[in-house]
């Protein structure tokens, strides 16, 4: 599970959500909500109550008009009340935009239409238009709130205070805002961790289901990296904070979500581009209908039809349907551990055709382990591992940890000397032991077997006892258990796959074969990876996504059509360069996120087609008088409700492939390893 500190991140300045008011009245700019915004029940929300009251008074007026003779005056008063209540939700803003910024918004069309209907004496129809338009905007706000609920739940994972151990051994409670990197935190059973850290003492299990979706608590002990928002299920832990209380992995995730909600995708901009010329175009069309019709027939009739044209051609559904879908889909993605930085990214994610994957830390665990042990006659595996571990305990070489971890008991070593880049020597029970690479120590009778191990992608360490080969140890960074399954799933989705790595060709090809990848690019520098991504795109592979986790992946992540960082709390450079970040490190997130984005794109396309079809169908019916003002208002606004509800379907999270469904519920043993990676 990723979990390194994020010291280079921007401080999250507020914890409220970002209101995306790409509304039907003209797509206002995003405005920050108040900090710690409380959820207001709908029956206390003015934005809902006013349109609801408008609808109630309209309904009462219609009932009185139809059922009670002589109640026309009372019904008229109710219609006026409904009109004023509904129009108050969009008319002031539309007029303000017109006079202060010269902006012709959709709300202005509705205001003009309602005003014209009043002038012509259609108070009832004007009230219906105002009510339906205002209630649609209210529904849009509710939809945005629903899509943002995941963000609010993330914020709730940060406790308000933490227990800090002082140098004197006492404890004190500190507000989370005052936590700094280096503080030693005490976390008892049942408490939630306030910031990222490294366990210094104690053993326990952490519930990280709200952060990474893991259903099984993960075991942690000294040296393990832990994430803000994790719940301690048992025991007592002492954790050294590696990030401040206001700039940790969880606040970074929230910041990414806020950024995603404040941006719109390419199709949203297409919708806006359609709407912008459509508004003045509709005004011109309505003017021509009124003018030409007045010259050829009854001026009053054609002015009325011109007003109906204004309503029929209003692109309300087009303006609101795409943002609703994108925000709902991005919010849903956070529920299964995928953070999408923008709507544009989400739409491109659904269109990728090729994936380039880093090897170390992405396809592999980034934790070298002992895979094979070779021994000479009269020597056991435990002898070879024990001798090597006794010396490697004094080494800082990356392979030392793998060898010592594979040895339960380590003998004492004296006079240990390390030669950088070659190996290490020392005395164990009076015997001279040397451990090093086959290039430094003669593999002797193991030469052929060593070559075979290296061809399988292993790094081999030779062990000599009194200058004679005693054994060899093969160490390899193994593939993640789900790697082959995921590559198969990607091929099933007709996605091309390429592995990019800085590792040697022999190791890269061996691991790629085990994963089921045939296109391998090895011995690449960071800039070479970026060039490889560009070459894949230029040769016609289609939109390319790059998936990596290390600092050396940053150029490739930035140059790809979609950059995906493995672990939202991994390398700062990787996350900042990427468009998408996974909060966990399970590769099954890749096909799952692609499925989610493809489904979202389909819903977006449906909404665009439906919105344009409404306009195309209603316009001739309005011009020819087949539909009157009331009928057009009803059809048009019901269509808006339909596209909103259709857009909200994007909030459903995708189901896993059946073969993977059971496996993904199990916890991988390396989920708590650090992701401060610079390899590959």
How far apart, in Å, are the first and last alpha carbons? 19 Å
Beta-strand share of residues:
15-25%
Indicate the percent of residues in helices: 40-55%
How many domains in all? Answer: 4
- Class based on secondary structure composition and strand pairing: alpha+beta
Number of helices: 24
Care to count the β-strands?
24
Shape: elongated
How are the strands of the largest sheet arranged?
12-24-23-22-13-20-21
Largest sheet: 7 strands, mixed
The averaged pLDDT comes out at 78
Radius of gyration: 32 Å
User: Which regions contain 5 or more consecutive residues with pLDDT less than 50?
Assistant: 1-38, 657-680
Describe this protein's structure.
The protein contains 24 helices and 24 strands. The protein has about 675 residues and is an alpha+beta fold. A seven-stranded mixed sheet has the order 12-24-23-22-13-20-21, with helices on both faces. A six-stranded antiparallel sheet has the order 4-3-5-11-6-9, with no helix packed on it. It has a six-stranded antiparallel sheet with strand order 14-19-18-17-16-15. A hairpin with a 3-residue loop joins strand 15 (about 415-420) and strand 16.
Topology:
Layout: E1 18-19, E2 31-32, H1 46-67, H2 72-87, H3 91-101, H4 106-119, H5 123-147, H6 149-155, E3 161-165, E4 171-175, E5 184-187, E6 197-201, E7 204-207, H7 209-212, E8 218-220, E9 225-226, E10 231-232, E11 237-241, H8 249-261, H9 266-296, H10 299-312, H11 316-335, E12 338-340, H12 343-349, E13 354-358, H13 359-363, E14 369-375, H14 381-392, H15 398-405, E15 414-419, E16 423-428, E17 431-436, H16 447-455, E18 459-465, E19 468-476, H17 483-492, E20 496-500, H18 505-515, E21 519-521, H19 526-541, E22 544-548, H20 554-559, E23 562-566, H21 572-577, E24 580-582, H22 589-623, H23 629-648, H24 658-661
Helix pairs in contact: 1-2, 1-5, 2-5, 3-4, 4-5, 4-10, 5-11, 5-23, 9-10, 9-11, 10-22, 10-23, 11-22, 11-23, 12-22, 14-15, 22-23
